[in-house]
Amino acid sequence: MAEHYKSITGLVDDLPIEPEFLKKEYRKATPAQLCEACGRKIGIRSYILDSKLVCERCSAAAHPASQAPFVHGLLFGIGAALVGLAFYATFTIMTHFYLGYVAFLVGWLVAKAMMIGSRGEGGTRYQIAAVALTYAAISLASVPIVLAKVFQDAADYGTTTRIEWTKVAGKLVAWGIASPFLELRAGLWGAVGLVILLVGMRIAWRMTADKTRQPKYS
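^ thats the sequence. predicted structure below, dont judge the formating
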């Protein structure tokens, strides 16, 4: 409790220590701003919508995120995945050498293409798409590789191979998707190939992350 000082004359000893009007002004609470659209209390951020002060939720509902960047990024990513698939399959068919490290290049290429298509916008859906496209490009490349070997073996033996595509197309795609795991039957090399593929997918995942939400370190 503050000490009450006595005046010399004693004329103002009975006055309050703190003027009452100052107490009222000091204790007066500032009224909360309410959203003019939904009536909720506005948080730290406020927005202007049609000349009205609104909350973040109402502003986001009135301006939904555009799907165009994601669609463009996905199209670019599909194109890059096809290029990666063709390169990996062609390289293997021509050299008869399986270079698993191509998965690193494909993961980078897919992610880079997606970020170019979306103009730098990233996020969870971009990451999922980039990982799926990277996996599909590497795994499905095994289909043309195996078909090339079948036709080459037939040519070496002087025979012809007729494939009923309508019956085997679906099975070939399913086999191609599962091929990275089927190669585990080859032992150590199959496991190494799968690990390399996972690293390539991780590269695609990290490159397509939302850069605006990543922590910044000083």
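The chain has two domains: 1-64, 68-213.
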